[in-house]
Fold these 2 entries.
Entry 1:
Amino acid sequence: MPAQSAEVVRLEKLSKHYVEGGQLRPILDAADATFCTGELVAIRGRSGTGKSTLLNLIAGIDEPDSGRIFVDGQCVTDLSQRRRTEFRRDHIGFVFQFFNLIPTLTVYENVALPAELAGGAHARAVTTRALQLLDEVGLAARRDSFPDKLSGGEQQRVAIARALVCDPRLVLADEPTGNLDEANSKLVMDLLDRVTRRDGRSLLIVTHSRRVAALADRVFNITHGHLEPDAG
Ligand SMILES: Nc1ncnc2c1ncn2[C@@H]1O[C@H](COP(=O)(O)OP(=O)(O)O)[C@@H](O)[C@H]1O
Ligand SMILES: [Mg+2]
């Protein structure tokens, strides 16, 4: 981690448990970590180890039992649910394994939606910004298509454009290539890498893929509730 890098995410003693069969099951157990501006961090771990839970906590979609999460210097765990939602919209882009595009909206409308919901400067700039992003992900010609007319790889590229429309400092991606073939995985990863790090954004990516992890500046594992640097 370069010493001069500003931190974009800090986790302090982050804990989360679920109740399973009447028993408390620790998912995260006092996890500490810091991720820096411009960094690509990969998080690996077996299925069910808490990777999606961690991303949802950082995004403020889920709440920890204890501990604190700072994003861009803001302690998101101190915010009300409403303020957390607003903060997420302005600071965080989210890319999902199954794309989560809205099937009744066109490609352009899907990308534009978060900016329109945000209102203000984002909404005023939405047409230019959405078209610029669609161009960047190579899908400007498909702007009026509906998601079901696109391949999985194309849908994920639309989802990446959507995640960037409010110009977030942090992009969280939960197994973004998990549902794609090898050629499309490579396209999507190259794109994610380019549109995040190039613009000084940070990318936190959950992945099973060794190839994806190999692109990362740092790799962490979640094992038994602990977030630890990958031993290789
Ligand atoms: N809302 C929930 N209630 C109870 N258990 C949950 C809930 N969400 C996730 N879990 C459990 O927490 C564990 C971690 O889930 P998850 O973060 O989705 O893992 P991963 O993304 O690493 O596969 C799993 O065992 C899962 O069944
Ligand atoms: Mg998961």
Note: Strands lie at 7-20, 23-36, 40-44, 66-71, 74-75, 92-95, 170-174, 202-206, 218-223, 226-229.
Entry 2:
Amino acid sequence: MSEYILEMTGINKEFPGVKALQDVQFNLKPGEVHALMGENGAGKSTLMKCLIGIYHRNSGTIIYDGQEIDYGTTSEALNNGLSMIHQELSPVPERTVTENVWLGRQPMKNKLMVDHRKMREDTVKLFEQLNVVINPDEKMKYLTVSQMQMVEIAKAVSYNSKIVIMDEPTSSLTESEVSHLFDIIRMLKEQNVGVIYISHKMEEIFQICDRVTVMRDGQYVSTDNVSDITMDQLITKMVGRELTDLFPKTECEIGEVVLEVKDLKAGRMVKNVSFDLRRGEILGFAGLVGAGRTETMEAIFGLRKIESGSIKYKGQEIHIKCPDDAIKLGIDYLTEDRRAKGIVGIRNIRDNTVLSCLSRYGTPLNQARMRADTQEYIDKLSTKTPSQEEEIKNLSGGNQQKVLLGRVLLTGPDVLIVDEPTRGIDVGAKSEIHALLSQLAGEGKAVIMISSEMPEIMGMSDRLVVMHEGDVTGIIDRSEFSQELIMKFATGVTE
Ligand SMILES: Nc1ncnc2c1ncn2[C@@H]1O[C@H](COP(=O)(O)OP(=O)(O)OP(=O)(O)O)[C@@H](O)[C@H]1O
Ligand SMILES: [Mg+2]
């Protein structure tokens, strides 16, 4: 018997105009956590989709548990012990948590009716086993992105698989939830389950993974024991060059106040929020999930009803009723929930880029100008796509994020609010996006950045607003930044 539960060799996969995988290899031992890393569009998700029958490989061999396999559907893969937590979640919003977990495999009563009681009991048992605290009867649509991700994780584990693939499972999780996930992964390891772990977060790789395979431009680069490799070496393998500065923050002059938010109240997530934002500043927002950061920004951007409080913009009180009002004033917002609120999946890159600026292009729409503007941001953000005409849903996750970032940059806002702007973005592109935000601040714009990644938020912000359960608990100057202080405020201690 081979020491591997899975051996993939010589895998090739082509899409129209894209060689997504060329002669790729990957193997996995039972009970190991094997990281798969590489830049956006490197082919990580595609390789996994070939494994579980979403895509058909053009050629190559997959040996799983001693047998060559070629699954045509995901249910075939699932029935044989291969489950996957997808990068782009696809919950059924109108159904309950329980129904989402057992979708397509509900326990039956007398072979005719769904056994709702058993289904609910099984969910409770599963959640207990995994320490997941989510109401099984809640409709999926009322969950936060991080809760949806936890449901997805629980669901993948519930198949009792031999291999669990996790494609960026922590992209929407906060630190405590990440450590919760790691407990689950350790439990899987004890049960001799092999875990394939895709993530752009370096620290996670060194915390939880045993080996790491790197891909670049659809090709296999290397496989190493995590204990034998340094973070710098790993980054160099991924981006094919040395990366000097992850947080290229330039000190720039901080000017007058552009946005002044006072005693803002909007629903149960935004109880009392006050802060001001200056030109040339990157103002970070830190906090745990449920702190109300996203909801605060949604209220400012006209996506949520404001109950009381005031917002002054460039010295004048403003009343934004909808995102269009905000964009006209020069305030734009990049959503954290790119799938549900961001991309228009079936439209192409160009339509998605110009969406917020359509009035600019006249009637009939000036196609040449739209094309030029789109190209500008494809180039600026090094978005990887065969053409502007590609449907956005065909891009890799990180590249979809870049298109959305292009959309908000194109509106040319004076106040740019970005919510988890580098979610799913590889290290190289991350550093480029940080440089871009820094440059905007340098031009006298003001940036608000919500991020759950400590290194990012501490590396890029001039000041930090920390929130806890709908209140601002602390505002910290760059010179005073420390993880301890941030955590203190984030857990509800006030200044
Ligand atoms: N259904 C599809 N149709 C056309 N092209 C596709 C499709 N799926 C993936 N691709 C292309 O294949 C390449 C690899 O994409 P993939 O999603 O595997 O990247 P990835 O390594 O997972 O990146 P990320 O870190 O951004 O998630 C990309 O160039 C992508 O545009
Ligand atoms: Mg991917």
Note: Residues 44-45, 87, 167, 396-397 surround magnesium ion (ligand 2) (CB under 6 Å).
